[in-house]
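User: My instructor asked us to take a sequence, write out its structure as tokens, and then describe one feature of it. I'm not sure where to start. Here is the sequence I was given:
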Amino acid sequence: MRLATITNVAYGATVALTVVSGVMMLLASNAHDRERAAVEQRYQLDKATSRLGMDIYAMSEHARQYVNTGDETYAVVYRRDEEELESVERRIEHIGDAGASQNELATLAEAIRWADTLHDEQVAAIAAYERGEEARARQILFGPEYERELNRAEMLVQRFQNQLDGRIERVVNEAAAIAAMWKLLAEIVLAITGLLFLFVLYFIFKRRVLHPVVRLSDVVSRLAAEDYATELPEVSQIDEIGDMAQAIRVFRENGLARQRLQAERDADSALRELLSRMTQRMQSCDTLEDFEDVVRRFVPEIDPGRAGRLYLFDEYRNAMVEACTWQKPVHSQAEFAPSSCWALRRGMPHRPQSDGIDVPCQHLALADGEISDSLCLPLMAQNETLGLLYLEVRDDSADVLPTPANYIEMLAENISLALANLKLRDALRKMAMHDTLTGLSNRRSFDHVMEKLRTGEGDAAARMSCLMLDVDHFKSFNDRFGHEAGDLVLSEVGKVLQKATREPEFAFRYGGEEFVLLLPDFDSEQAAARAEDIRLRIAALNLHHDGERLGRITISIGVASVPEHCDLSQMVQAADAALYRAKEGGRDRVELAQCRREIRGSTLQTG
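Assistant: Let's start with the prediction itself. The structure tokens for your sequence are:
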């Protein structure tokens, strides 16, 4: 056989093998496209249905909280969720367009029907509660039937997710297997082509075919090991080798896109988990210091590319005051008026360095013409300004990926809700510790203060006096003028006691018409003088009720001092005993407690 014939046959075989290898690489690329499409479909379906389970749980929880606490806030939140429910269901109706199967849609439709059943029961329970049928409302929301329906709805949503995950996993595995097969066949064909080049057509295709094939073969091997960071060689020739290089390039780009998508999903999942943990920690905080510590620890992890400050609104000074800071912000002031921030003025996030021109906030310390890449997010709840979350891009954060804006807004919303809950708990705690009629601290607060003093948690001084006060003849006065007049007397006495001490929280309504006043650093002489002054002030009250003068108001006061009369544990009993002697002695007077040595001497004389 002539050499030309052999050369032509080898050339024809080489061309054919090259075309086949290129087709195989394209088929492998198409298989990866199907895999990526399946992953994308899974992401879209997850995104479209993620809120259904959350809404079922959230609406049930809000309805239960409303029935448990009677707090209208939960009713408002529930009705807001109820208004948004139709929009969620409309999104669910289009899940079929996103690629869900009929079995999956049937499962999801059944979950929606159970969710509607739960919604009907929630509406019935709230209506029963508002009619005063609290027991009926609790029976609906906390009964075993409701729990079974709630579990059924959650189970159906989970079953939908399991069906979806199983189907997508099968599609991905099939596509990956096909892609692996085509890649293996392509490598075999490329190897045969290379051997043919070396064995038969070495002197013809050494520079035109052999070198590109060897380099592309190395790239294919690295791509087969999912090393998509490898760089493709430049192949400028327009032939089968060029087509093969283009197929490999497409395959590599698809692999990079798939890796990037998976990395984004992993980062998104980690960010959501971090936000969830932060929200749980904030909701468990009992004090503002704990809350600030949670924010200081978590926010830099959620948004590592920005420094920031958390400001809280001080109502008394009408100022935004720094509560905590992280990663050393340099532009924003530690304290400023709310009107200095455009975000607080407008009630929405404000970022001066954005796509369009904008005005920087006045609380930023900037040079002339300088614009800081900062972000101000108002912290609001129920149209009430609670504070401000301030963020600014750090100079050394060029290599840090920015946190998506929707997660930053979600972060601000979670901080706002946690602040509102903490403020509500503080208000409830304050209500539990104060008497609404007199404005003084109540018996529970008194017991709490005394316990702190006994255990050394409070700032107990070396000297302390206790005044036990009782309105004289209050029962007969109440019977004569009525309970409203009696309430007026107690309220006025409370006002006098609030002005009689430097620490208003040390004035207590002990019970009924009895009051207690704690005077730190007062000895018995000073305490008796203060008691006499209080007695005279109350005696000088000129009260009228329904046009009728109530007459002269008098009080009896017992005084006990530590350590002159007794120790701290016996102070209240000693003051109460002195008050009893004041009443026995004719009322409208101040009586000092007996010293311990006087009591001991009296006991010996009696013996």
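For the description part of your assignment, you could build on this observation: The first strand starts at residue 306 and ends at 314. Try explaining in your own words what that tells you about the chain.
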